[in-house]
Amino acid sequence: MEDDSLDVVRFRERLGLPGLIDVHTHFMPERVLRKVWAYFDSVGPLTGKEWPITYRHEEEQRLSLIRSFGVLRFTSMLYPHKPGMARWLNGWAADFAARVPDCLHTATLFPEEGVEVYVKEAVESGARVFKSHLQVGAYDPNDPLLQPVWGMLAEAGVPVVMHCGSGPAPGRFTGPGPVVRLLARHPRLRLIVAHMGMPEYGEFLALAQAYPEVRLDTTMAFTDFSEGFSPFPVAERGRLADLGDRILLGTDFPNIPYPYAHQLEALERLGLGDAWLRAVCYRNAETLFGPVA
User: Fold this and answer.
1) Residues 13-63: pLDDT tens digits?
2) Distance CA 107, CA 116 (A)
3) In this structure, are residues 114 and 91 in contact, taking their beta carbons and an 8 Å threshold?
4) Based on C-alpha coordinates, what's the Rg of the chain?
5) What are residue 22's phi and psi, to 5 degrees?
């Protein structure tokens, strides 16, 4: 693990960055996280690859590791798979952010009665980012119950990291179609498309070109692992360069099947230049969330 940290530190130092901002990391209640790990342990049939968890550690060790990488801001991405979970998860995440100040206060949602109330409570209590998982939650972002919530988040300027691409396996409401309809109603929503929209990379990059508040995170994209089953099209690299101010570093730490540094290496080997890397790994998120104190 020490070698992992050294590799990340060398990457940062070469670019002259004070640190990294990672918008897609997972901290959640232990019993929930262990269920997530159990899912990844059995995910081989979905991807055709085994998915070992590289950083399967207790919370304090995970926090120590991500800080040793020089990650100055990160998130506690968490998500419900059924009604009645989101409010409880939001309570846990608020407590986590209070005791872990370098974590951006994260919240989540689900289309259910009362969602407008608890999302409003989370925003008013200081939530900086929301997570929406259309694949795990198996819900349409255009569900009528969610319409006032999207409007509220757009008005408040709170970003939403949304797993809406169809990787690693398609869901009933994944793919660009539902998101196209959502943005037609809420064009000012600060949507961060998780995993670069894998595997529908081109369609989601096109949405970022069409909507100034749409961004994408790099989570697992371009890595050897993902390239094995969902390669990023070489023809889209021009759009990656053009949208360099709208792409944010995300990693999926700790649930990744390779060292943290490999995500950074995968970005570097795209050959888009140091200025692009500095923006993606730090500057863009700093612009979105404000300077690191």
Assistant:
1) 999 999 999 999 999 999 999 999 988 888 766 666 789 999 999 999 999
2) 13
3) no
4) 18
5) -110, 110
- Going by C-alpha positions, the residue among 124, 207, 127, 129 that lies closest to residue 165 is 207
Tell me the average pLDDT across 162-178: 95
Predicted confidence (pLDDT) per residue in 241-275, tens digit: 999 999 999 999 999 999 999 999 999 999 999 99
Q: Average pLDDT, stretch 177-187?
A: 98
Contact 233, 201 (CB under 8 A): yes
CA-to-CA dists, residue 7 to 2, 56, 222, 264, 281, angstroms: 9, 20, 18, 9, 15
Return the biggest CA–CA distance within the chain: 50
Report the Cα–Cα distance between both ends of the chain, in Å, rounded: 27
Nearest to 111 by CA among 78, 134, 77: 134
134 within 8 A of 119, measured Cβ to Cβ? no
